[in-house]
Every structure is written in structure tokens, then in C-alpha cells.
From TrEMBL, chain A:
It comes from Thalassotalea mangrovi. This is C-type cytochrome. Its cofactor is heme. Heme c 2 binds at residues 224, 227-228. The keyword Oxidoreductase applies. It comes from the Bacteria. It is found in: Periplasm. Binds 2 heme groups per subunit. One of its GO terms (cellular component) is periplasmic space. GO terms for molecular function: cytochrome-c peroxidase activity; electron transfer activity; heme binding; metal ion binding. Residues 50-152, 200-349 form the Cytochrome c domain. Keywords: Heme, Iron, Metal-binding, Oxidoreductase, Periplasm, Signal. The keyword DNA-binding does not apply.
From TrEMBL, chain B:
This is Copper-binding protein MbnP-like domain-containing protein. Pfam families: MbnP. Residues 28-214 form the Copper-binding protein MbnP-like domain. InterPro entries: MbnP-like_dom. It comes from the Bacteria. The lineage of its organism: Bacteria, Pseudomonadati, Pseudomonadota, Gammaproteobacteria, Alteromonadales.
């Protein structure tokens, strides 16, 4: 009698354990350029094949939206380096959002703050926000969980990756897929690996990009590296060092930016310094998509800077001509120099990234329906 | 009965002595706590309160970071070298100071702290990820030039004019090793040593720096030397 009881209890425990134990998963083995440096993956969301597979399907699935018409990929398209080509993104409400869609690449590196104003601290936290936002995907999370449970594929995908279908696991899977979006095979990467050399114009542009001008030693430069790091070309990872005011607006028109999150006056008008990888395919530019071309961006940095209280001192001070009047801000680059910087920016385009099948829409392919 | 009392006392004493010895011998942690100063006062960010040392106007400091590297503890018999010893000091946090913790060191053995201001030429001339070194970080110039050792940015206001201040001080020649005494407490507990980093020293030199004239220092070797010559006096025990 007592033996049977023990057996039943044991069986119960085993069943409970099977149902609740995390599934057996395979960590993703990946390579990234040494020069990218340390990367961050949260301990409670291991980077596994199973989670990436699930995340990829979720990312491309319009089921995630209230009207079943919009997926993450509606605003983050692979061929545009996961942007949408619009000045300001448009979602479920058909109203333009306040912001330009952001490129998604190399998200394991760079600032630990996401969105233009840095208001979330992880990809896991970020993922559920667009799903619920009325202007973006306008979906109720409980409803979404029901829909995922009814689906004929998600229950297995979730079980293999995390166990249960929950909002938290949905967010984790989306985060994992986005971590897999590594862009590291541009012309610039090949140059860094010593495989090719850049053209004279590109090399000239690279040098200008990487230098802060110093007239005292006749060093010419575009000062881009003061904010866009040399290899990742994104903002700096430490604290809020990856946020800056690059002179888009004067005091009167200055927007909140990082201030909306920190409440610190010194952060008013500071925005996330975005990665410049694949920048040639992500027009229009800046947080509100105000510039249609890289030529306009360079014009801005060269002679369109607007003064404000929080404008970066490095921008005010950077000048390729001996400063005569400190109140007029201009880089004073030549036409040739601006063209060279643009040529360098084009070396950041990574065709492999834009066409990599692993990042593409799984609904378009037969192979996924195994 | 009369015999057991002395025996117990002896045992107890032995236990206490053993305990103390053990506590003294066991490795401790040493915290080096750096406080930013401007002269006699703790440094305050984003406040137009500091007098231009060599000219008219007042200035404020908006950003301030300093590399410290290769911390050694030196004693008569041995030297402890902290591994991966690259620390980016910054003070724009709530605490207002920066801690470097050396774990598991036999504090009793050492009487001096030696450390480098800046990044040693080997690390400065290569791409390594060690400690706080980050070639994609704000202190990196680019891989041909190396790191800024000191970053001080702000603004000088003089006669209604606003002048940006940018001091980016680097170069191998500026790397400076300094020594400060390690006051030995009882050696009984983990220890905190507080150090004062007096940034006013950078400008309060024999001939005080006129920030209106030297408002930016980046690559001009003479200007770099002018500021970096204050590095040996930057640190003191508080």
C-alpha cells in the first residue's frame, strides 16, 4: 500500500518536473569580430537556437498585432537593415509615430538603453511595448497568448525554447532573434580584417571620420568618432555616454529626448547615437526622419548645427579652420571631404546581412514547415 | 578543581591568539576610494562656479573621466600586481566617488600604492579588451592614436561669451606613475583608503592656465605636455 503511494507521489513529482523543468536547448555558437568587444546576453535568457527560431517566427508574424496585419517586420524590413524607409513609422492607427524606425543590428553591443530616448534597458523589456502600443500593433497580451496557444506551431516552438507560452517568454524569444542580427561583413569589416583595401576616396573618408580636427597641428577631421565609435559606429556603451545632442534644434525647439526618461535637465535634447552600419540603406535619417539623404546629413554637420544649452561641446569646438568666432558653429569641411566621408559611410553596407536567409521571413519559405 | 581553571584559561587564551593570528593572516580587501576635488572643495558638476585660473571668466565641468592603470601594492618583501588593472574613473554618479576594490590581498605586507595615470604604452598602442579598456568607448580616439587618459569637457563664460572647453589628454609620454603611502590600519579588517583627485592642479600651475587662450587641448604636443605635467600631483591621500 505504502509502496504504491510512494510510487504515485514519485510519478507526480516527475511529471511536475517534466512540465516545469526548462527544456533542453542548444546554445548558439556564433562569431563576431574581435574589435566589437564584449557583448551582453542576460543570464535569464540564454541565447539558444530554439529561442532564435521561435523569435524569428514571432518577429515576422502579423498574428502579434490586434488586426493581424502588422508584424515587427512591417516597420523593421531586412532589406532596409530593419528600418522602414519612412520619416516616421506608421502602424495600426495609421497615425505617424513621433519617431523614425530604428535599424536593428549588433544589438548585443553598444548602449544598454533602447529607443531614441533610451527609455528601456533591455531588449526583453522593449519587445512587449510595440505589441501593446495603440499606434503600433495595438494588441492585448492576454488575447495574444490565447491566439498563440491555439496556433498549430507555436506550442511546440515555445515548449522547445522555454516551456510555457507567456508574455515573458514571447519577449525573450524576440530579444534572442534580434541578438542574432549581427552585421560584420561590410567592406569596412573586410578592410579591418586585412582582406581588402579601401579606395583612395573611402580611405580619405575613413581618416576624416576617425579624427577630431585640430588646427594647431593641421589635422583635418569630421569628428564623427567623438560620438560614433570606431568599429561599431554606434554610441558608447557606458552609462548615458551613448546619448548626445548633435545640433538638430535650437533651445526653443529642443525636444525632451533622454530627459523624458531621466528627468535630468542636462539630458534635454540628447538622443541615442545610432549605429551607422548599413546607413546607406536606412534613409531617411535622424529620430524624426528629417533628412532624406546622407548629403543632407553631412550638410547638417558641416554648416547646419543649431545652438542650444545641451549641444555637445565637441561639436561647437570642432572646426577645420582656425576659430575666429566661437559663436558660429561650422566644421568647414570642403565639398571633396564631405564626399569622401559619404564614400566611407557606404563601406558600412553589408550585403550579406541584408540578404542573410537566417534573418528573413520564415513564412516565405517551405523549408521551415518541417 | 583548582587545576582545571588555569588549564581552561590557557586553552581559551590559545584560542583567542589563534583567532587573531588567523584574522590577521587571512587576505583582506582593499578599497581605493577616489574623490574628485577642485582645490579644497569636492568637485561639483554643471555649475558655473570655478574661476578661470589664468584669466577672466568662470567655468563649469560637464564631463570628466580619467584612466588609472596597473595598480601595484609594494612592500619590503613582495609586490602585488592587480590583474587587468585598467579603471575608468568617473564621478557623475549618486555617490560622487569611484571605488576600485583589490580583493584578497595580504594587506600587512605592503606599505605603498603605485599606480599609473593614463594607459601604459603597451595597452595604448594595441587593441585589447582588458578592465575598462574599450576600443569602442568614449576614451578611444582611434586605434592608431590610442586612448584619451583624461577627458574634461565643459564651458567657460567670460564677457558674455561662451567658450566650449575640451581637454582630451593622451599620448604615451603623458603616462605617469605615482606612489602614495598605504596607511596600515590594524590589518584586522577590510580597509578603505580614500584618495583625493584634485583636478584644479591641471590648471593651477606655476603659470596658471588661461582657459580662454587654451580652451581646447587634443593633439598639440606642447599643450598636452602643459596639462599632463600636473599628473604627478593629481593624487593624494585624503
Amino acid at each position: 500500500m505504502s509502496v504504491i503511494t510512494v510510487l504515485i507521489v514519485l510519478a507526480g513529482i516527475t511529471f511536475w518536473k517534466i512540465a516545469n523543468d526548462p527544456p533542453v536547448t542548444t546554445p548558439v555558437e556564433f562569431t563576431a569580430p574581435f574589435v566589437f568587444g564584449r557583448f551582453q546576453i542576460p543570464k535569464d535568457n540564454p541565447y539558444t537556437y530554439e529561442s532564435v527560431k521561435l523569435g524569428r517566427r514571432l518577429f515576422y508574424d502579423p498574428l502579434l498585432s490586434g488586426n493581424n496585419e502588422i508584424s515587427c517586420a512591417s516597420c523593421h524590413k531586412q532589406e532596409l537593415a530593419f528600418t522602414d524607409g519612412l520619416p516616421r513609422a506608421i502602424g495600426a492607427s495609421k497615425r505617424a509615430l513621433p519617431f523614425n524606425s530604428m535599424s536593428l543590428s549588433n544589438l548585443m553591443w553598444g548602449p544598454r538603453h533602447f529607443f531614441w530616448n533610451g527609455r528601456v534597458a533591455s531588449l526583453e523589456q522593449q519587445a512587449l511595448l510595440p505589441i501593446q502600443h495603440v499606434d503600433e500593433m495595438d494588441q492585448d497580451l492576454d488575447e495574444l497568448m490565447e491566439e498563440l496557444k491555439q496556433d498549430d506551431r507555436y506550442p511546440v516552438l515555445f515548449r522547445n525554447a522555454y516551456g510555457r507560452i507567456t508574455p515573458e517568454n514571447t519577449a525573450k524569444a524576440l530579444a534572442s532573434f534580434q541578438r542574432s542580427l549581427i552585421s560584420a561583413n561590410s567592406k569596412y569589416d573586410k578592410y579591418l580584417r586585412g582582406e581588402i583595401s579601401l579606395s583612395d576616396q573611402e580611405e580619405y573618408g575613413r581618416k576624416l571620420f576617425m579624427a577630431h580636427p585640430d588646427t594647431k597641428v593641421s589635422l583635418r577631421g569630421g569628428n564623427c568618432i567623438d560620438c560614433h565609435s570606431q568599429f561599431l559606429t554606434a554610441g558608447f556603451a557606458t552609462g548615458f555616454d551613448g546619448f548626445s545632442n548633435n545640433g538638430l534644434d535650437d533651445d526653443e525647439h529642443l525636444q525632451d529626448g533622454l530627459y523624458a526618461f531621466t528627468g535630468n535637465d542636462a539630458h534635454r535634447g540628447l538622443f541615442k547615437v545610432p549605429t551607422l552600419r548599413n546607413i546607406a540603406v536606412t534613409a531617411p535619417y535622424m529620430h524624426d526622419g528629417r533628412f532624406a539623404s546622407l548629403e543632407q546629413v553631412l550638410e547638417h554637420y558641416n554648416s547646419g548645427i543649431k545652438m542650444s544649452q545641451t549641444l555637445s561641446p565637441l561639436i561647437i569646438e570642432a572646426d577645420n579652420r582656425e576659430k575666429v568666432d566661437i559663436q558660429s558653429v561650422s566644421l568647414n569641411l570642403t565639398e571633396t571631404e564631405m564626399k569622401a566621408i559619404i564614400a566611407f559611410l557606404h563601406t558600412l553596407t553589408d550585403e550579406d546581412f541584408l540578404t542573410n536567409e537566417d534573418f528573413s521571413d520564415p513564412f516565405n519559405r517551405g523549408s521551415d514547415h518541417d | 578543581m583548582t587545576k582545571t581553571i588555569p588549564l581552561l584559561t590557557t586553552l581559551l587564551l590559545a584560542a583567542v591568539v589563534a583567532g587573531i593570528t588567523w584574522q590577521l593572516q587571512s587576505p583582506k580587501s582593499l578599497t581605493l576610494r577616489f574623490y574628485p576635488y577642485m582645490g579644497e572643495q569636492v568637485l561639483v558638476f554643471n555649475d558655473l562656479r570655478y574661476q578661470n585660473p589664468g584669466g577672466p571668466g568662470k567655468f563649469l565641468i560637464r564631463d570628466l573621466q580619467l584612466f588609472i592603470s596597473n595598480i601595484h601594492l609594494i612592500g619590503k618583501k613582495q609586490t602585488y600586481r592587480q590583474p587587468d588593472s585598467y579603471h575608468l574613473l568617473r564621478f557623475d554618479n549618486d555617490k560622487g566617488y569611484f571605488d576600485i576594490v583589490l580583493k584578497d590581498v595580504a594587506l600587512n605586507e605592503y606599505d605603498r600604492i603605485e599606480l599609473g595615470i593614463g594607459v601604459d604604452p603597451d595597452a595604448n598602442g594595441s587593441i585589447v579588451f582588458s578592465g575598462d579598456l574599450d576600443p569602442n568607448g568614449r576614451m578611444a580616439w582611434n586605434w592608431q592614436v590610442g586612448y584619451k587618459f583624461l577627458l574634461l569637457e565643459g564651458r567657460l563664460t567670460s564677457n558674455e561669451k561662451s567658450i566650449p572647453l575640451v581637454y582630451h589628454i593622451g599620448f604615451d609620454e603623458s603616462y605617469t606613475r605615482v606612489t602614495v603611502p598605504l596607511a596600515n590600519d590594524s590589518g584586522f579588517f577590510d580597509q578603505i583608503t580614500t584618495l583625493k583627485v584634485d583636478f584644479s592642479k591641471l590648471f593651477m600651475q606655476e603659470t596658471p592656465v588661461n582657459m580662454e587662450q587654451v580652451s581646447t587641448v587634443k593633439f598639440d604636443p606642447d599643450n598636452v605636455r602643459l596639462i599632463a605635467q600636473a599628473f604627478p600631483d593629481l593624487l593624494s591621500i585624503n
